[in-house]
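Model the whole thing, not chain by chain.
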Amino acid sequence: MLEVQAVSRSFGDRKVLDDVSFAVRGGRMTGFVGGNGAGKTTTMRVILGVLQPDSGVVQLDGSPITASDRTRIGYMPEERGLYPKMKVHEQIVYLGRLHGMSTAQARESASTLLERLGLGERLGDTVESLSLGNQQRAQIAAALVHNPEVLVLDEPFSGLDPIAVETVSSVVKDYAASGAPVLFSSHQLDIVERLCDDLVVIADGTIRASGSREGLREQHSTPRFDLQLDGDAGWIRSEPGVTVLEFDGGYALFDVDDPAVAQRVLQRAISTAPVLHFSPVTPTLSQIFKEVIQ
Amino acid sequence: MTGYTSPSFAAGTWLVAEREIMTKLRSKSFVISTAITLLVILASVVIGSLVSANPTLPRVAAVGSAISVVEATEAFEVTEAASREEAEQLVRSEEVEAAIIPDDSPTGLLVIGLDSSPSGVLAALSVSPAVDILEPDTQNKGLIYLVAFGFGIVFFMSAITFGMTIAQSVVEEKQTRIVEILMSTVPVRVLLAGKILGNSLLAFGQIALIALLSGVGLLATGQNILLADIGPSLIWFTVFFAFGFVLLAALFAATAALVSRQEDMGSVTTPIMMLVMIPYFLVIFFNDNAFVLAIMSYVPFSAPVGMPMRVFLGTAEWWEPILSLVVLLASTAFFIVLGSRIYANGLLKMGAPMKLKDALVKRS
């Protein structure tokens, strides 16, 4: 488990991180979301030791993270970069060796990964000759080549087409499934919503929400339901304990004071007309996001 | 999950150095320019030996008893002629420079020229009084200039070539942002050490190759005396260059870390370029000025040129190169520490060039 504990960091007079704490649990994909300049990249740089925090610590499995622990992290920085004139395979092998792999291990791992990421045909091409999407895949390979025990990925999906998002997310999910803590940030909330098990929301350098995706949803969901009847649903306006938000003939979106009220509404609905649809409405991630960063 | 232990300082440094070297060796422009440099050096050694070893002797025609006299001087290529008329004919047809025929004059010879007095021929036939020089000039002025120029230009070219390579490689890593991956993988000092080591090895290799080639060239063309003259200073030059370049490399890397784009690099590396250029001009203009050379031979930036020059001139005591080397080593260590601080602070700063003052503050 990777834990960030009470980390603060300022650049000059600007406090970029203020008492940031959260945990990335093993075997789970943790989405890290926040607006531009919220502090995601700075947090990740602190985890990787590229930046020193003013106060606070980063712990791995209960003890402060060391330089040698950090070499076992797979890191994909927000600012993408590989040597433009170096060949793809050679470059990934080089990074693997810098992490302490033998040449043979690094070669094998680089080949397998690049193959899996769909770059098998481009091993001998220079990075600059690849399309942006393919450079992005190579960048993922650079983060994964040394078989890291922890993954920290800053915006791994930006600039990828939907198929590439699938390829990359399946590779990353496999890592999480093998027990590694995975922290990834993204602006694309729909992707985060689909992939993450846990969620950390940051705004203005402070953590606004963190926890499991379902837990957060429950926390932030009002008891809201929608109902579609094959008939008129006008009677619902006069039900006690019900606040109707939207109404259109047989359709109603409404909040209830109590879960029991919802059941009562459902029973009455069944007795009046065929029920086509009745379900609780859970807030989407972007709704929760907007709510917590305010 | 497999955990790999990060490479040791030495192993990491070597990995980085190896990449620097391989990248450079694969660059066609580098290979070609090195090959041209080596060819020029080889050519100048060979041509130098041809010019000095085989001066062509003046051709003359000689008649009768003059033949034996002229041949005895061994200063001419002699064509025998049967008569004065035949000899004159040879002169007119410009097959020979002059004709020499017996005469009743006190010298016993008459020299016939075509349109002017053949001074070369006369000089060879003249008898000069013996000369005694009290303070002989042991070394030829032209040779001194040539050696000064050689040390100057080789130092200048190598330092600029490989210094700029380091600077470019630092800025490339910053510009492409791969530096963030590298920094999260290995300590910053490993990166810096690897860069300095890689490029120093390349520069040193090139210098050693040049020194070796000139040495072998001089030997092969039979100019052993010249080699004995230059040899020691050539060795000192190589040693001084090795450490002097490391110093410059640290400075190039540090200053390049201040900027994030290749376009901004020129402005920050200019002061370092000056440090490389000044010794070059000084040694060319002041190679006969003992005072300037003495100062140059101790200032760390110019010592790689100044001290070998003094060793060559024979004006340095045996301990002087060693003392100067110690000074150079100390300043190299100092600048590496200073340079790595600037480098570490500059690496993650993107955008406008960083102020040197900010880069020196100890914080990452």
